[in-house]
Amino acid sequence: MGIIRKISGNKEELTAQEFERAFEMYYSSIRNYVYFKTSQSELAEDMAQEAFVKLWETRHRIDKTSIKAYLYTIAGNLTINQLKRDQLKYKFMNLQVRGKDINNPQYILEMQEFDAKLQHTLSKIPEGAREVFLMNRIEDLKYHEIAERLNLSVKAVEKRMSRALAIIREELQRNL
Amino acid sequence: MEKPKFSIEEIEKHAANWQVPDPVLSKSEAWAKLQARIAENPSSSSKSPFYSSLWLRIAAVMAIIFAGGILLLLMSSVELDGIASNNQAHILPCGSEIELADGSHISYNKYLWPLWRQIDFDGQAHFSVRKGRPFKISTPHTTVDVLGTTFTVWVSGDDAFVHCEEGRVRLTGVDEVVLEANDYASLANGSLTSKGSYNTVGFVQFETQGALQFEDAPIDLVCAALSQRSGLTIKSTLPNTLRYTGTLDLVEISTALEVLAKPFDASVNWVGDKQVEIHP
User: What pTM did the predictor assign?
Assistant: First the structure.
């Protein structure tokens, strides 16, 4: 009886308040996630909006314990094949230049070149590995948090991260 | 000045300083827009006045039946082909979306669509099906009944491969198989050859610039994709638990097959010009 109550409790309709709370908690992360996949800022906003519309439309049958993973799945499906990999062009804003040699123009130029090449290198990384790398570095998510959101095992996340880093290292060695 | 050397740690530190470009809409503006969209869409609100009125509901049903009677007289088939470099989704009359790969083909009757959601299909496509009347996809040997929402279908001659991402899908041929979310199944001449589960979505990308790209894809799916794109019949006796990650250039299909077989230490045997077998 207790189990039945617990399961049916999770399937209760998502209330407007819970929906708003989910938006508050996950909207930015979902938008970032789509940006990591597509490198298109406006598309990322549209797809994040769409994911929440779909969440609302399916609120009657959603398992409340899996809203986070559900949103990521919807967003991932919506953006599937939106862009070819060679069309990716990231424009991350760089919040700071490394502390040392901040007044050295030559150093700053080299850092800018490095930054541009590193961002360009992202397009060479398979989507699955790239999004894990960016979620870890930019969203500051732990491996187990990424695994939970993308419905993967922690081992799979580790594997993807290693692959991303290996590709970055190889590409930078070749180009720098 | 000496060029800086960048270690993995430095690369990671550098990337940690990146920030996603500022959104066009602030979070509160995005929330307002979302609320407006939900309010505009009657199907997303259970409190819509349209649905709260029994009289209007009956009138709507009668109008649909009347319109359906007229539309039954107007037989017309819509034919759609996947076009290279065009990944735009086709929106069906019910709002369901189909993303067709290059070389794929669907046809359906748009006038009968409100009553009869059936598609004749060949090729590869990603379907996102809206709730509503039964949704069927007919292929030469298998019928796919959609009981849920999102899935991918590949059809190549007598073979079919279906991956269900959300909801449930029933395949009916010689065998009947129901796929839950994340399940995939391969069928040959309508008979089930393998079934398994894959816990993520989008593990194969549509053809880009003459190449197919796979990530951790079951070997059956890889063979189905190559068969569909090359016109060859490609059979594999490798265990379907094997996964393939990589890009296969379709310009030279024999090289692509060798590239596929190499990591599994498998051999590629040509049987005539049109059939290929991959053995352990």
Answer: 0.43
